[in-house]
Specification:
Layout lengths: L1 H4 L21 H17 L20 H13 L5 H15 L3 H19 L3
Length: 121
């Protein structure tokens, strides 16, 4: 029974020689590369409008059928993700279906939401 209490220590593994990475991370190089990539991508945009970067996300409740339809369109390659697809669909709806007065109302409502979100009155 004393053998059960005194367990034999395991052999220490031989890890071999220390491995060093071929290249290391350099923040200055990454900043230069990312700034050059941003300059190149901003010139070749599909749409001419500038859009503020989304700094947060939210959840939208839709039916499972609509979720599947959106995901199917993304898989077909219509857009990179569901957010971009919804943006495309809304832009098309606004430009082709809404009347001039409805577009003006839509713009005013968006301005109110933006002011409310930013805390300005």
């Amino acid at each position: 029974m004393s053998d059960l209490l005194r367990k034999k220590s395991k052999q220490i593994l031989d890890r071999g020689a220390s491995i060093q990475p071929k290249t290391t991370f350099n923040l200055e190089e990454e900043v230069r590369e990312s700034s050059s990539k941003q300059k190149g991508t901003s010139e070749g945009r599909e749409t001419g409008r500038k859009k503020a970067a989304a700094n947060s996300t939210t959840t939208v409740r839709v039916s499972t059928l609509n979720k599947d339809k959106l995901n199917a369109l993304v898989v077909l390659g219509v857009a990179d993700n569901v957010d971009n697809l919804v943006d495309i669909l809304m832009d098309e709806y606004i430009s082709s279906i809404l009347s001039k007065d409805e577009k003006k109302q839509y713009s005013l409502i968006l301005d109110v939401y933006n002011l409310k979100k930013n805390g300005k009155k």
